[in-house]
Predict the structure of Proline--tRNA ligase.
Amino acid sequence: MSKGVISKDEDYSQWYNDLVIKADMAEYSPVRGCMIIKPYGYSIWEKMQSVLDKMFKDTGHSNAYFPLLIPKSFFSKEASHVEGFAKECAVVTHYRLKNDGSGNIVVDEEAKLEEELIIRPTSETIIWNTYRGWIQSYRDLPILVNQWANVMRWEMRTRLFLRTSEFLWQEGHTAHATAEEAVAETEQMLEVYADFVENFLALPVVRGRKTPNERFAGALDTYCIEALMQDGKALQAGTSHFLGQNFAKAFDVKFTNKENKLDYVWATSWGVSTRLIGALIMAHSDDAGLVLPPKLAPIQVVVVPIYKHDEELENITTYVNSLRKELIATGISVKFDNRDTHRPGAKFAEYELKGVPLRVAIGSRDMQNGTVELARRDTKTKETVNQEGLAARIEALLEEIQTNIYQKAANFRTENTTEVNDYEEFKRLLDEKPGFLSAHWDGTAETEQRIKDETKATIRCIPLNNKQEEGKCILTGKPSTQRVLFARAY
Amino acid sequence: MSKGVISKDEDYSQWYNDLVIKADMAEYSPVRGCMIIKPYGYSIWEKMQSVLDKMFKDTGHSNAYFPLLIPKSFFSKEASHVEGFAKECAVVTHYRLKNDGSGNIVVDEEAKLEEELIIRPTSETIIWNTYRGWIQSYRDLPILVNQWANVMRWEMRTRLFLRTSEFLWQEGHTAHATAEEAVAETEQMLEVYADFVENFLALPVVRGRKTPNERFAGALDTYCIEALMQDGKALQAGTSHFLGQNFAKAFDVKFTNKENKLDYVWATSWGVSTRLIGALIMAHSDDAGLVLPPKLAPIQVVVVPIYKHDEELENITTYVNSLRKELIATGISVKFDNRDTHRPGAKFAEYELKGVPLRVAIGSRDMQNGTVELARRDTKTKETVNQEGLAARIEALLEEIQTNIYQKAANFRTENTTEVNDYEEFKRLLDEKPGFLSAHWDGTAETEQRIKDETKATIRCIPLNNKQEEGKCILTGKPSTQRVLFARAY
């Protein structure tokens, strides 16, 4: 509850919000639902981008850029797509302001657009309209394109990073000659996301498929990764869609196949967003502040000198400079905080709040003894260690911290994933011990909706490689062949 | 005139447009004035971003992200700023579409915004509104922030990369305690831009300041770098603005200085955009296609095998793989084009069009002789060289090409920069031998405007460190103490 951050057990939602603000990650803007991503928060996004971008390129994708604005008519071409996005989109209607003569700046009604333009909530329509010009034959396929961009969905209830009207994301849009190839791409990108979230965000995920109800507007199949937050709510961390030929049909994108016949092109799209920063914060942090996995921490090691006299600082600085050099050479980011405007205690609290994985404190006695004090953010443990071999020790510790943070989240998920066979028990657990509830479902949209209406729990996914077992739907008692994963969700 | 590209001497403007399209750099979109940046064009932007981003960080800047949409009222707060941008901005008025009952998707008039939002044409207003909350004391200064973003200016006459309604750019926005510090930042960033354009785009620039007429809307002083294109027109390649306290006053951003007095904060902003890709193309390319400086070429070396039988290809491939390994180890990007669907001649033409700096061709006879054929894109020269030591030779050649492209552009600029003392001669040169015209000017906005109206030439800049000399204004004959640089411009 330090520094104005409420305890997460007291009010998880407020704790999250306080933490985002106090740790200098982001703040709300005067534009409803839009956020300002501050340098510290943005540097985590940059790390995510750089890792993901390499993963996309290693799997053969290239980046491109498509227009922010989409003609309204494009939107209407794919029926379920417009249905899904029309209710929450920003509409551009004019292209000029003017001075009304009495000094007020007003919209110039003479500059009204013939056709309204929508700020992209996602880019399938404008991209598939473009692909029509790029694809004639199977030789032009596959097209493996990704875009890093801002998108806008006019959300009514927003939360920093988790749900904002404007957010940053990447959206992959690929075109294929066969359904099989498109499905393989969809699955490949889901695995890329799962790999990224598990190995970099240190957050275990369940790979699965959405029910028809929960699919992306325009998709035949939506794959997703689902993670569990510390309050027992689920968070969808990434999606990968098999779009079939829906967009090719809507935008008339045909190709000549190897048999010299015309066919519609097969599509996928997949995306993750700045929402991942919200997941990262929610999954690992504590009442003292952020806990960042070393692989995504903007600063991995901070060094704080403890001294009274300038000669002491000089002495410490000489040592720290050589340590820094060693660490930087192994790719570890280090900050030496030698500000004389703040006391060591204030610095400790600041880096704890900001989730720096390792803190090194060095005083004059340490210099005499050839030691330093090493403090881990994740376990809040401290130890005095020798300066000799410190760089190697830090390198190993960072790996250990990454693993430990993951393991803690994995244990939490195990403890909060329950097989349930009774609807009363199901409802009780949702209130008393929320988490993933693995239960039988009769496969109908009606049942899914009733459970949602009655409990606010949704089917997060049908896990991939799900065990087949006979069972009875938790609500209707009708026969079922597999369990699905329910939870309340962000 | 190959591959549908017209000769640049015949029609420079058409040549540029054809080249952008044929080389797969970009294309127009269905949204008026907006472009689609294709993967090949975007990969050049990515290279530019990565170099500039490092330069910004090396000079102490961090990235952040501010909202796309700006409340209309923010715009009106700085008088000359709104004057400069109101006439060409996209206005969001509604936040929902609806089905009108007969299947048409229309704007939902019930979802009209109370205050219209403007898609950012630049972010000074939203950022300075934010800085108010970040700055209390001199200890909070300087703030050194950069943003990579899309912006929108509703241009009536657009050209791919050079002038589009939406474009990508970076905008630095810094806050300082003193005017001197802000001016130093403005000058530092101009030098960063000049360094980048000269050393990476291989394009010499003139560093200078704009006349009051040509300043950024809201700036006290605008610094710029100006480059000369092959048709003798100038292109503004980057600007850095000293904004004084204008935005701090408009958004009430005050701080307590070291003397414990309240004062307004001093500001700078600076930006370069995807326009640089247009400059890159225009400055160096020829009738056969792009000529890219190696430091920004997405592919630096392409290897084309020449063979009839598969065994020959196998043999060549073994060698190429070892060459690639060597090249990649020194950071050189290589593409081995072993497609069997295209003949070597077609491949040669493709990479010429796309401006790949070096082409290596290898046939069976080369393999017997231990040689390859090396072709330079910039000079269009070919030579047969030994495979032994080839990687080192390629590395040296790429540097030589970078230097040569720069030198060619520098020579062109020298040949097309003329000191003029007579207005008739000035007009004649603009038509017959366009380029930079260095001439005396009486320093008044009226004269500047008359020259612009009569000749379409503008004052590109007052060069930094300009030689002081007595002279007479080319139009009015009034006394002048220095020459300024005129040109027709993009």
